[in-house]
Amino acid sequence: MTKTEENKLQKRAALLESAFELFVDRGIVRTSIADITKKAGLAKGTFYLYFSDKYDIRDKLIAYRAAELFRKAARALAKKPQSSFEDEMIFLIDHIIRQLDKEKMLLNFVSKNLEWGIFKHAIVQGTDEIGVDVPQFYQDMLERSGRTFRNPELMLFMIVELVGSTIHNVILYKEPVALDVLKPELYETIRLMIHAQEEAG
Amino acid sequence: MTKTEENKLQKRAALLESAFELFVDRGIVRTSIADITKKAGLAKGTFYLYFSDKYDIRDKLIAYRAAELFRKAARALAKKPQSSFEDEMIFLIDHIIRQLDKEKMLLNFVSKNLEWGIFKHAIVQGTDEIGVDVPQFYQDMLERSGRTFRNPELMLFMIVELVGSTIHNVILYKEPVALDVLKPELYETIRLMIHAQEEAG
Amino acid sequence: MTKTEENKLQKRAALLESAFELFVDRGIVRTSIADITKKAGLAKGTFYLYFSDKYDIRDKLIAYRAAELFRKAARALAKKPQSSFEDEMIFLIDHIIRQLDKEKMLLNFVSKNLEWGIFKHAIVQGTDEIGVDVPQFYQDMLERSGRTFRNPELMLFMIVELVGSTIHNVILYKEPVALDVLKPELYETIRLMIHAQEEAG
Amino acid sequence: MTKTEENKLQKRAALLESAFELFVDRGIVRTSIADITKKAGLAKGTFYLYFSDKYDIRDKLIAYRAAELFRKAARALAKKPQSSFEDEMIFLIDHIIRQLDKEKMLLNFVSKNLEWGIFKHAIVQGTDEIGVDVPQFYQDMLERSGRTFRNPELMLFMIVELVGSTIHNVILYKEPVALDVLKPELYETIRLMIHAQEEAG
DNA sequence: GATGAATGAGGGTTCATTCAT
DNA sequence: CATGAATGAACCCTCATTCAT
Question: Do residue A197 and residue B185 have CB atoms under 8 angstroms apart?
Fold first, then answer.
């Protein structure tokens, strides 16, 4: 990698980082490109060498951060001995929730976006964002478990939506309950959903 | 009510209606106050006699429309003979889903906002939006059923979030399944959640 | 006319005047809307209440100024007793040339635009620019003279183009000759063109 | 010529060619230096090694293309046996008009610029554009004919302006007449102008 | 109360030009 | 010689908000 190329990567990273902080801080609408470049210590025009507009950088950011969340959880799962399908599922979810609880900024940003679109198309095409093939990963989990479900995709969809939409309020505002009150109920519900979907072996 | 007062109400309604159509049509960011007043046939300055800014009118609108959804469902429930708690709950949810399926515009607008904040604080304080006291209504339902649950508020929260977040994709994009595929699974899950929360009588 | 309306007309006029001077001074490309409004003592946004963009004001300006040139010449002609077709034609042309010679700024601006498009479509539609129907005026001149020409429109076209393109260099740079050297040759050529086009009576 | 020198000429030519096509296509104002270099397959900075800015390349281009038009016409004339002054003049003009009618792109570009400045100073000083000395050529034509005119330079000026300004509308928009309707009238007018200028031998 | 003309800060975007590689 | 990343001034235009009428 030449010096110039390194420089470019650095600048791109600086823009992404600045944008992330500003988006989280004051929202996307209230963040201007001038703000982003200023924070990154670059000229306004430089932004357009790397991204086409504000929404382009936002999308790259969401995809990247969400994939990262999942990647970490998947890596942790891989280190553990195999367990039941529902245990693995809950392990993954719990891992992601823990990350988001630690990094509330990230939660607020990924927020409502950590949902179907992301999970289904999480293979980010691009030169640099390393992709994660969530559907394939899920498929593998199913096969490994040897169990069959009525509608596995719908099941995942419902679980993801339930988790994604409940944790937002709970982590950020502790409303209507604190996170450790939600968790057991949430995980029990998920177990129930999985059992209900299972077809008689 | 004097003629002037009638006039004022009419103008306020015109602004709300215009704003709603424009928000739904092109989104809030792309709607200007000039657009709203023009569509309402009023002068730009008049807007500020009724609302403080774009986000003020949006909030009034969401609260009003969401309350209306609920009010209609509650009214329909009242006409029926009493049934089990879970049947009544599913009746209400199904009624709201049907409304949103018919009026996709409304869904797209209320969208992700049909959730905890709204349900909990749906008593809109204001001069004219007729309030609906959802928590009280829920309390009455619980008492009427004579049953007791571990954490009724958390239970409602989870149900509302699950419904709110799944129907959006399903109604608007039929993704990952069509609405009538989702419904039975969704309602079964809700029943399971209610049972799991019930305390031994 | 209300005070507000008077005010608006004044502002519109101020913008037109400022734009004209700047366009003449440094050309259209090098004139920004900020320049125009600043010179007119107005805010930048005010420009857009009166014109849609730089090229809109330019077109209004050209049409208005060209029509004015013609209107003055026509008015002067009307005060004279009727004479031959070619004398009237040359009187008009000479009158316009004299105006342009006095106001070189105007020449530089109308410049190459004082030609077919303008003459043919000089009826400016708009709320305020008073139109002049050049084709109709020409038609009347022809009829009044009682003479017939092979192709009157083509004849006018050639005359207008010849005049318009020669006077520019001559008035502004005295190149290749001074204006009073050009004039007799120009007018003689015009007479020749008219005679050559005349059909045998 | 060394290989490097050849390379340079090639690059220069590529820039000229790209600029010409873009100028013709979308106008000078809307063409950026990035566009030109991209089309030429060169880097942006390279442009400045050959031209000082956009207007520099435009001027070089107009001079070059106009000179080329004339050079071709003059070469064709040289192949013919000598004829009368007016016949030769009209031959040249007709030759140029034919070229422009074939290559409308070129007409649109040279357009209003094919006039006095160009004809008088058509000897392009520069490293590579081969010059054509139009005034000298005209002088030779006059001497060869053995005739004398009152003001030969003014005569040429008027002819050039008349031709240049009429063909633009006629070729591009067929307005107010088609080219073959204009031509006989135009050429007759030119003959009349020449005769009127001739001094009694 | 109602109007809508006026404001001017601020947004996104382009692009000629420079200069380190 | 050639490159193309970086710059940042400058542009056009939008729009929430004010205020004289």
Answer: yes
